[in-house]
# Entry
Amino acid sequence: MATENPIEQEGTYPLPEAQVDRFMLKLKITYPSREEERRILEAMAVTSKSFTTKAVVTPAEIIAAREVVDEIYVDEKIKDYILSIVFSTREPDQFKLDIGDFIRYGASPRASICLTVAARAHAFLNGRGYVTPQDVKSIAPDVMRHRIIVSYEAEAEEMTADDLITRILNELPVP
# Structure
């Protein structure tokens, strides 16, 4: 787990693509809502308060949940869909996607693995024992955004990896 502050990066250096690819997800976290920030303010804007923490889950429960996630069913059609998403970032012409000029480097094989595991976890969190195409679509931006390196042409057109992922998900046939 790591955090990245896009505003002030003095003293930090971007990780090479090979290291970034080792992170399973890249989440976009926005500012809290007014109500959320009020709760933060009330909890944190004191100097004398001591904080206590309370475990909400045990390590054994985490291991058990991971074992359940590993058992979530992924149909062959869903696996093919995941592979199509990933391969479309490398070979967009084969999928009739007009995005090839915007991608310098497509997603690695690690993207296929992480997208499958994340889709299983998404299904688990939604109380299902099987993965749906919507599970894949819901989690794909978080899995893929840091794995697609956009070209200079994409940057010139202010196109992001998220924009490309959206196009891929909108245009690829869903099983």
In short: The domain at 58-171 is CATH 1.10.8.80 (Helicase, Ruva Protein; domain 3). The mean pLDDT is 90.
